[in-house]
Amino acid sequence: MSKNNKTKSVTTPTQNFITGVLAGISDVAITHPLWTLQILRQDGLSAQNILGIVKKDPVVLYKGALQNAGALVPLTAIRILLSSTFENYADKNSINEPGILTKLGSSFLAGGVSSLISSPTELIRTIKVKSSVLQHATASENFFNIANHYVQKEGVLNLFKGVPTVAIRDGLYTAAFFGGPQIVKEIINPYFKNPIASTLVSFSFTSIIASFVNTPFDTIKTAQHLSQSVSYLIGSSETGSFSEACKKIYNTDGLKGFYKGYAARGTRLSVGLIIKASIIEKMDEYWSKHNENDCGNNTNSLLGCDSDDPSDSF
After folding, report:
1. Is 96 helix (H, G, I), strand (E, B) or coil?
2. Tell me, what CATH number does 159's domain have?
3. CA 169, 164, 181: angle at the middle one, nearest 5?
4. Over the stretch 32-85, which tens digit does the pLDDT of each residue have?
5. pTM to 2 decimals?
6. Which of 31, 108, 156, 176 would staple 180 via disulfide (CB 3.0–4.6 Å)?
7. Which residues have C-beta within 8 Å of that of residue 32, sequence separation ≥ 6?
8. Residue 37: which domain range?
9. Read out DSSP for 36-71?
């Protein structure tokens, strides 16, 4: 797909980070209960059992919410910052918006790198949820106490056991997030006169396809983290390896087992993607106007403003 001729927007790393923080906060506030339902479903609980747990303790839906926010907010900011940095590096000699292949490659790499943060954090959150289900004393502990105890018992390296799986999952998700809607929009725009409808359809369709592709990796990751959680909480012989997790899922539920929790996860990703994309779009518009005003008011602006002065080319 050819690169478009739209002029590249110029935002600073600080502006990209602020945008990511706002997007992450909004995402967690709305979608965290869906994440909890997804984990419980992937843990093998039926809808009826989950309903019973929620009725008994509705707060379980928000277990780990602060930890989730503490991870997802900076994580979203880091992904946006990394994706923008990789894009600018790949297209550093161009004044136009990066092509779709550059966007996909940069965002996939950003998602993969961010897994070094997301995987250990999700492990600790999973321990928190699992301990609540088992009514284990760890459920009352905070994130840092669990992490500290886990490292003392299992070692630092075991915090990163699921990173390769999470790297693939997150790379696919961020690639879909930053590049997918643009591809879908180009296809459906001739059939949609309303730009809002076009945006909603493109993001919804992208998130559904993306979640279908990367849900097996998320299910495997969850199985790995659940094995590690059980080993940490009550002891077990499971290693939490990728192959062990795949065998366990397949032997229990067959191929469909890799899509346990897909409804909750697909809904969560769709809602979260639309929320974050809307905020990013509005913030990009704000930063664009803000930077244009700064360019107009400062002849020696550091924002990379265009100038008609011929001397600028030397």
Report:
1. strand
2. 1.50.40.10
3. 20
4. 888 788 778 877 788 888 888 888 888 888 877 776 777 677 778 888 888 888
5. 0.69
6. 176
7. 61, 62, 64, 65, 68, 69
8. 13-295
9. HHHHHHHTT--HHHHHHHHHH-GGGGGTTHHHHHHH
